[in-house]
Amino acid sequence: MSTTIAIENPGRTGATDDTQLNASFARQPILNRDGMLCGYEIKVRAPAWPDAPANEPASNPNTQAEPDAAPGRAPSPAQQMANAIVRGLVQGHVRGALTGHPAYVDVSRELLLDDAIERLPAERFMLELSPAIEVDEALIERILQLHGRRYRFVLDEVTQPNESFARLLPYADVVKIDVTRAPAALLPKLASVLKSAGKLLIASGVDTQAGFEAALALGFDRFQGYFFARAQTSLTRRVSAPRHALLNLLQLLAGDPTVAQLEAELKLNPVLVMHLMKLANSSGLAVGHKVTTLREAINATGTDRIARWTQLLLYADGRKVALEDDPLLQLAATRARFMELAIERLPEAGRDEADAAFLTGVFSFVDAVFGGSLESTLNVLTLSRPIQAAILHREGVLGLLLSAVEALERGAWDDVEAMCARLQPLTVEEVAQLGLMAGAWAGVADRSAEGLERIED
C-alpha cells in the first residue's frame, strides 16, 4: 500500500527540486503454491505533470532519459520523476510494508535508463517490463548491464507471445501471465514451454479458488489475486475447531466477562492458552515477574488486547506457518489498522469511532473463514448496525473508508481519489501513506506484544 514524496512545477524556471515530487505506492500480495505470501507487487502512482507551455513539449515516458544533468544544471523532468519514485521505494514505509518479502515493481523505459534505478537493492526488487515498453538496442544493452549487477527482470501482463516478448524473454527470470486475458487454449502450451525454458511463472488475475487450482495444475509457481480472501464452499474453507473456539471467545468478550469466565473458555483450547502465556510474558506486557498461570496472563494482557489478538488469530491458517506469511491474516490486519488510522484523520473521530473502524476492517471478509452468509456471521458476532451496514452495503463513513482501502488494495487510484473527495480532508497521498503504515504494523501485530501494544497506542 503507499507512500509519498509533493509536486510542484518540475523542470521549469523557479521550480522546486525533485525532493518535492510526490509518488504513491500500493501493494498487492503474491502467493506461492502453498498459498503463503512470498512477495508483493508495488503499484506506483506517479504525479501528474503540469500542462506544458505551448512552446515546450510534454515529457514522453517511453523516451530515453537524458544523461545526468551537468553540474549547476537543473535535472530534467524525467530525472526528477525517476529520483522521486526510487526515493519512495527505498524509504522506510515501503520497506516496512514489504515485511521482509521481495517487491515486484513496474519500471518504465524512462526509469530503466536512468541511473537512479541502481539505488534499488537488487536482492529486494524484481523489475517488471510492460508489454508496451519500446524494445530497441539501447534497452537491451541497459537490461544486460543491470543483469550483470544482479537485477532480475519480469515480463509483465503477458497474454500471448509477440515480437517484444521474444526479444525480452532471454533476459527475464520470471514471466507473469494474465490468466483472465490469455487465450485458454494457449495457456497449457505456453506454460509448458516457459517452464521447460527454466522460467518462474506467475499467474495474475487469480480471484477464485477454481482459478487458483487451474493455474496450479498448469505448473504456475506464483499467484497474484484475492482468491484467498473470498468465501469458499470447498472443504479447504471449512471452519476448524480452533476457529469455533475463537468465535466463542469473541462472543464471550463482547459481554464484559469475568476473569473466571475467560479462564474457563480459554482452557477449552490449549493453543490459545499457549499464545496468551507467550504474549503475557513478552517484554511489552511484563509485570515484573514471569507469568505462570492463566489467570495472571489474563490480568496482565487485559480484555481489550485479548479481543483484538483473537480477532486477528481468527484469520490465521490452521497450518503451522509463520503468521507474517499468512495472506488472509495479513490482509485482515492491514485493512483493520488502515481503517483505524484513517478515521482518526477525520473531524470529530474519537476512540469509539476508531474501535468501530478497526472492527469494520477486521471483519469485512469474515465469510472467507466461515463461508455461508456474511450477514448471518456478522449477526453472530453481535456487531453494531453501523459496522454491519458498512460491511454489507458500504454505508456511512465506515463504508466509505472500507471502499477506499479496497480500491487501494487493487491499486485503483482513480477510485481512491473518488473516495477521498467524499472523505475530506483525507487525500490520496495520505490514504496511500496510511496503507503502508498499516502493512508494516500488520507484519508484527500478531507475532508479539509489540504489535498488539501498538494497537492500543
Automatic annotation (TrEMBL):
Stretch list, region Disordered: 51-78
PROSITE patterns: HDOD (PS51833)
Gene3D superfamilies documented for this protein: EAL domain, Hypothetical protein af1432
Pfam families in UniProt: EAL, HDOD
Domain HDOD positions: 239-429
SMART domains the record matches: EAL (SM00052)
Superkingdom of the organism of origin: Bacteria
Protein name per its UniProtKB record: C-di-GMP-related signal transduction protein
